[in-house]
Amino acid sequence: MSRTSCVVALSLFSAPALAAPSVDGLLCKRTEPNFDKPTVVISIKADDSASLASADGSRSLKSAPEGKHGFLIVDTKTGKAKAAHNKTKSYDCDMAENEGNASSVRWLGNDVVFAQGWFCEEFDAKPYLVNAKTGKFIGAVKLPAVSPETVYHFAPLEGSLWAAAVFEHNRDWSGVVVLDTKSGKIKSTKQLAAAEVAKLPDCSAK
After folding, report:
1. pLDDT tier for residue 145 given thresholds of 50, 70 and 90
2. By the 8 A CB rule, do 160 and 181 touch?
3. How does pLDDT run across 73-131, given as a tens digit for each residue?
4. Which of 206, 187, 197 is nearest to 32 (CA)?
5. Rounded to an integer, what distance in angstroms lies between the CA atom of residue 109 and that of residue 132?
6. Which of 70, 80, 84, 164 pairs with 125 at a CA distance of 20 to 30 A?
7. Pairing relation of β-strands 173-180 and 186-190?
8. CB 103 within 8 A of CB 94
9. Residue 57 burial by Cβ neighbours in a 10 Å radius (0-12, 13-18, 19+)
């Protein structure tokens, strides 16, 4: 399967200084693609954005030159680019841009980038965070059982904490995690049984 055909969806939100803040107010349900049988899963209220540029317009994402791994973070004022890489080299094949939109990378605020960490040789992924100012690796996001087809939705909570809804249809795994963008560490994980998910409001409801 080609990288360009991978299903990727992401969005934005910021989090609290608590070790495991509540995300209950953000919880909702979505219907996500799941082979030939769409599945209703736990998610969060989030405005999806696949913009290459940060919200303040100061930086933009760009794919690495052909033959190179990682991706580039470009200062829109100076045009200078910083290379970003996964510390695990075999998981350093993200596609930053695809047809004018961000592909396997997303902005979490203006200073942090989430990258899915696509495996260069097989069907697998090891997500990580990057400091957008320096291009330096912040930390691995140790999500279970993710792949290039995992669907993400992000929303800010408070401070350096963000909520992330994750759905991996290949392994039938879904949940909402609280992520610290200073370290990449997951502070809490929330999962619900199908009957509980069915009781949640629809994410698209106003």
Report:
1. confident
2. yes
3. 999 999 999 999 999 999 999 999 999 999 999 999 999 999 999 999 999 999 999 99
4. 197
5. 10
6. 80
7. antiparallel
8. yes
9. exposed
- Taken in order of first residue, the domains within the chain and their CATH numbers are 3-198 (2.40.128.630)
Banded pLDDT at 21 (limits 50, 70, 90)? low
Average the pLDDT over 22-30 and give the result: 93
How far CA 14 is from CA of 4, 124, 137, 173, in Å, comes to 28, 27, 19, 24
CA dist., res. 168 & res. 151, Å (int): 7
Residue entry with tokens 């913009």: 51
DSSP code of 65?
P
Whose CA is closest to 124, among 165, 154, 153, 92?
92
Question: Is residue 173 over pLDDT 50?
Answer: yes
Q: Is 155 within 8 Å of 163 (Cβ atoms)?
A: yes
Question: Is residue 68 pLDDT above 90, yes or no?
Answer: yes
